[in-house]
Amino acid sequence: MEYRNAVFVVTEEHACPIYNVGDEFVTHDSTLTIERNKEVCLMLVQEVLKALTGTRPLQPRFTQTGVRRTKFECGGCTGLIRFEYKKENAYSTLQMNLLEVAKKRAKKQLIEEFFGLLREMEIFEPLDDFDLQDLALLMKLQKYPANKVIIEAGELGTHFYVVLAGTVAVVREDNTVIAEIGPGNIFGEMSLLSGELTYPSVYSKTVVQLAALKAKDFKHVLSRYPILQIFFYRVLVDRAQENTMRAGNISSGMSGELTDINSVELFQLINSGGKTGKVQFVFDECQAVTLFNEGEIVFCKYGELEGREAIFSLLAKQKGLFTYTKGLSAEEKEFPVLGGFMGLIMEGLRRIDEEQEEGE
Predict the structure, then answer these.
(1) What is the pTM of this model?
(2) How many CB atoms lie under 10 A from the CB of residue 224?
(3) What sequence ranges are listed for the domain Cyclic nucleotide-binding (predicted)?
């Protein structure tokens, strides 16, 4: 079978850092084209080229409708995807050409319908129209009838949502509605940013339309557009300040458990307040200490680890005791900053996500 002009589709995906099930690649005259809002994986290119040249053994099978399918696999990195030949890249009949044009027109119209809403949102103001269109192409339209669960408390977050139409309700375990979210607002981002389980639950109060972005694509967007990290960083800080018993007013002698306020939120409180002091941790297996000078991390030791690697390990801890003490010695105040605070936090969260995906 020749694949010089063909479309391939991803049918399985396991911890692939780039692609999702349903993503497509197009070959034309032995060249590979991938949607412009996706990064190009050189390992995938090699596998597709093997298919083009016939050097990869084919695995033909037949679907229930009798259509011949051929499967390929890309597993060169820590992830794995399987993709299949889908269809020819060119159509021989006028009817098929018209059908393809109609499908593309319908998709373009759908994107344009909520592009205007995204354009008006504060979070996306830093993106130009071209970049925002790329983001819109990654999003999928989802519709829910009234009184349906969209996010169940106690699960890992899977999507970032933008409300296009209708209203969703944020509900506690006792069925108390603590917030209602309407068009132009977002939800689902906290679990993706913090790595924690979702809480509370989110239901559709009315019929709703949502633009949904998969967790993997959400991370891709943050990596591609660092300016958006600032917005979400502020969201994390606001959440920490609102949800802790101390309402974000951290003071010398403050102590607690990481089950009540995790290390990410704790560090953000200290950073946002421009505090100078140290946080000491006690875990079952070891102890740790982190020094802050005017909100920036200047030293961190966790067991045998020091510096950035110690910070990343601390961010993954979910249980332990901590105590914050104000002030540093004159010598400690001369320690250099270990790195930009937001960059350290985002890198630590990225590593946590990768470890969770490898464990699945």
Answers:
(1) 0.51
(2) 13
(3) 123-239
Residue 99, domain member (yes or no)? no
- Secondary structure, 3-state, the chain: CCCCEEEEEEEEEECCCCCCCCCEEEEECCEEEECCCCCCCHHHHHHHHHHHHCCCCCEEEECCCCCEEEEEEECCCCCEEEEEEEEECCCCCHHHHHHHHHHHHHHHHHHHHHHHHHHHCHHHCCCCHHHHHHHHHHCEEEEECCCCEEECCCCECCEEEEEEECCEEEECCCCCEEEEECCCCEECHHHHHHCCECCCEEEECCCEEEEEEEHHHHHHHHHHCCHHHHHHHHHHHHHHHHHCCCCCCCCCCCEEECCCCCHHHHHHHHHHCCCCEEEEEECCCCEEEEEEECCEEEEEEECCEECHHHHHHHHCCCCCEEEEEECCCCCHHHCCCCCCHHHHHHHHHHHHHHHHHHHC
Question: Given pLDDT bands bounded at 50, 70 and 90, which one contains residue 324?
Answer: confident
pLDDT mean across residues, the chain: 78
Q: Which domain holds residue 70?
A: 5-88
- 270 half-sphere exposure, CB direction, 13 A CA radius: 29
Is there a single domain that holds both residue 17 and residue 122?
A: no
Last residue of a domain, one of 54, 88, 122: 88
- Number of folded domains that form the chain: 3
CATH of the domain at 116: 2.60.120.10
Count of CB atoms within 10 A of residue 62's CB? 9
Q: CA 72 to CA 62: how far, in whole Å?
A: 15
For residue range 6-64, list pLDDT tens digits in order. Answer: 777 777 777 676 777 667 777 766 566 665 556 667 777 777 666 666 555 444 443 44
> Are 257 and 215 members of one domain?
no
- 26 lies in some domain: yes
Residue 98 within any structural domain of the chain: no
